[in-house]
Amino acid sequence: MRERRASVLVGSDAIRTETRPVPSPAADEVLVRALADGVCGFAMGSG
Questions:
Q1: The whole model's pTM is what?
Q2: Which residues, including other chains, have CB under 8 Å from residue 47's CB and lie 6 or more apart?
């Protein structure tokens, strides 16, 4: 099984990095690979 790293919101102000399985898309879905991501401090309530 392939795995990926995922940032998971675990509280109102906490994010944890976890290893999770790569999901399998359904017949009418697609799976995209993100090369980069980010979280705005304002989105976390610090702005």
A1: 0.57
A2: 40, 41
